[in-house]
Amino acid sequence: MASTVIHAYYDDDDVLMHAVKKVKAAKHHIEEVYCPFPVHGLDKAMGLAPTRIAITSFMYGCLGLTVAIVMMNYIMIADWPQDIGGKPSFSYMENMPAFVPIMFEMTVFFAAHLMVITFYLRSRLWPFKKSENPDPKTTDDQFVMEIEVHDNEAELKELLLDTGAVELNIIKNSH
Amino acid sequence: MYTFSNRLRIGSFILMALGILGIGIGFVNAPGTVEEAKAIVAAAHDDGHGGAHGEDTTHAMTEEQGAAAAHGEGHDAAHDEHVLHQLQNRPWAAVYVAAFFFFMIALGVLAFYAVQRAAQAGWSPLLFRVMEGITAYLVPGGIIVFVILVLSVMHMNHMFTWMDADVVAHDELLQNKSGYLNPVFFLIRAALFLGGWIFYRQYSRKLSLAQDESDDNSNFKKNFRWSAGFLVFYLVTESMMSWDWIMSVDPHWFSTLFGWYVFASMFVSGITVIAMITIYLKSKGYLPDVNDSHIHDLAKFMFAISIFWTYLWFGQFMLIWYANIPEEVTYFVTRIEDYKLPFFGMLAMNFIFPLLLLMNSDYKRVNWFVVMTGIVILCGHYLDVFNMIMPATVGDQWYIGLPEIGSILFFSGLFIFIVFRELTLAPLQPKRNPFIEESRQFHY
User: Fold this and answer.
1) Is A45 part of a structural domain of the chain?
2) Percent of chain A beyond pLDDT 70?
3) ipTM over 0.95
4) Residue B361's domain spans which residues?
């Protein structure tokens, strides 16, 4: 389905924040905001749901800890319980202090790496990915707010100019 | 201005009165002769107090029988003497552990306060008066610890074996250490540490109050410089203090990271007390500008320093366990054999509990959650001090009974009384701190 969006350009993050609040108050749906740097409070102003990535990280950490314990219990205790320098390899608990450094590192390794991969998957980032930027300026000094147009072009334009937009672009057949 | 509520004041007096009663009973019940000591051990054995303690005494008895069979009467008498000293030490050690625990809270808060000043933290100036209130306990608490040390030097108890000239005469290891571990130098060092800490505390408080009334920032800048200087002094003296006051109850044992370990314990207990008193004062409406974010920051510190403490605990334990050198490992052997529950219990209380409860960002803003975790952390760090002092002073004759609980009650009452009385002396919000506006607007 062909859709039309309007791109409103801003040159200041404070103006952008006010604009977002105004557009939200006028009950328009903001498709996307492109910024050159993180703007504090923008997600709140747009009403985005909080991220759950920390929760996934916790679960990955638990997984890493389990992997470490199962691995070392199998190798050092169950499979071939050798006497190495008098270490008590009769049970996992008896020799546990020696395993803690690995348990810790595996927890951190799993938590960190799997969380990063989760982030890449969820935000659709990979090498050779085609950039989704509407305008190179949004990586330097301009902010772009993208709003879908439904037969209300004139009204939207007026509202956006009112919020301090420095430039408006109508894009037909976006996506 | 804060007004000391009557209920809290009376509560602190009741705690002190009950505490003195418990401590007094502890001293009265301590045995005077070998026969009394034997009767106490036999009674404890027969009743079988239950749990770990019952097994401990059984263990002691079998060891005694085995030893007696092997070495005859002479060794038996020496063993009885040893048990007598342990039982006589118990009320002393109980008082010492509690006195040091509450003193170390005040000292930990002082270190945190100096860090906040030296780092020019923007979030914490709103809490400076709370911290200054807590560090007021440094003066009476430090004096009490010092008096206990002086009484030990005067041979009122047997907590520090190296203070006993007879023991040193038969112990080459202690003779070699006597250049450092001798009673006079010991007391001089203690006085020097306490003098330095108390001086910084009083002077910084004075500058902090003067800054409220002044029309430039000179007091603030002076306080910054003194705080930075204090931190250097503190790092050195805190480490030496931990060798002197705690490690030297086990004079044959040594550990290099012990000073850090004690520091982590006092730092986390101090921060926990700051958080708890801040939440209390806020709930009474005295700190209107303190918001969730301040509590969140304090809870983050509680969480992070709990993990830091565990890191050091494990760093010390694992290195000694791994290498298993007999002269070092006895320290943990006695603790694992005779103190299994407190030794591993404190690990759960000081690590697993705060790790799981304070990991969630939202929970760090829930006041009752922070207070509940704080109570567990404080109990855990009391046990930590208990585990450091008791095995060397009372050995397997330990029990958390009247003298221990009485000492906790007495010193908590004294702590509450001193801290909250100090809080009434100055407005709870600094007026002219350059960062106070940032702190008021602090939002995370």
Assistant:
1) no
2) 98
3) no
4) 6-440
A128 part of a folded domain = no
Is residue B1 situated within a structural domain? no
Q: Is position A43 within any domain?
A: no
How far CA B297 is from CA of A80, A138, A171, B50, B122, in Å, comes to 48, 34, 46, 42, 12
Tell whether A20 and A62 lie within a shared domain. no
Cα separation, B114 vs B231, in Å, equals 7
For residue A159, the domain's CATH number is: 3.30.70.260
| CA–CA distances in Å: residue B184 to residues B104, B176, B252, B392 | 23, 16, 20, 22
Q: How far is B318 from chain A (nearest CA, A)?
A: 6
Measured distance CA(B54)–CA(B139) in Å, rounded: 40
Q: Are A57 and A31 within one domain?
A: no
DSSP 8-state code for residue A168: E
Indicate whether A60 and A116 sit together in one domain.
yes
Rg of chain B over all Cα atoms, to the nearest angstrom? 23
What distance in Å separates the CA atoms of residue B316 and residue B199, rounded to the nearest whole number?
32
SS3 state of residue B73: helix
The per-residue pLDDT for B62 is: 44
Q: Could you report the per-residue pLDDT of B176-217, keeping only the tens digit for each?
A: 999 999 999 999 999 999 999 999 999 999 999 999 999 999
Do A30 and A63 reside in the same domain of the chain? no
Cα A15 → chain centroid: 24
What is the separation, in whole angstroms, between the first and last Cα of chain B? 27
Which pLDDT does position B45 carry in this prediction? Answer: 67
Average pLDDT over residues A81-109: 95
Residues spanned by the domain of A60: 53-122
Find the closest chain A residue to B322 by CA distance.
A98
Check CB contact under 8 Å for A100 and B317.
Answer: no
Query: In this structure, is residue B193 part of a structural domain?
Result: yes
Length of chain A: 175
Tell me the shortest Cα–Cα distance from A59 to chain B, in angstroms: 13
Contact status, residue B200 vs residue B230, Cβ threshold 8 Å = yes
Subunit contact B359:A100, Cβ cutoff 8 A: no
- Contact pairs from chain A to chain B, CB under 8 Å: 12
Residues A106 and A151 in one domain: no
A69 CB-near residues (< 8 Å, 6+ apart):
A92, A99, A103
Domain total of chain A:
2
Residue A136 domain-assigned (yes or no): no
Q: Does A121 touch chain B (CB under 8 A)?
A: no
**What is the per-residue pLDDT across A32-70, written as a single tens digit (0 to 9) for each?**
999 999 999 999 999 999 999 999 999 999 999 999 999
Percent of chain B exceeding pLDDT 70 equals 93
Q: Are residues A117 and A149 in the same domain?
A: no
Q: What percentage of chain B has pLDDT greater than the value 90?
A: 81
Per-window interface: A 16-45 vs B, CB < 8 A:
none
Q: For B154-183, what is each residue's pLDDT tens digit?
A: 999 889 999 988 888 999 999 999 999 999
Confidence tier at B33 by pLDDT (50, 70, 90):
confident
A112-121, B7-16, B49-58: lowest mean pLDDT where? B49-58
Co-location of A21 and A58 in the same domain: no
Give the model's pLDDT for residue B60. Answer: 44
Token readout for B267 is: 């730092």
Give the pair of three-digit tokens for residue A158.
């007026």
How many domains in chain B?
1
pLDDT by residue (tens digit) across B122-142? 999 999 999 999 999 999 999
A24 and A74 in a single domain? The answer is no
In a domain, B416, yes or no: yes
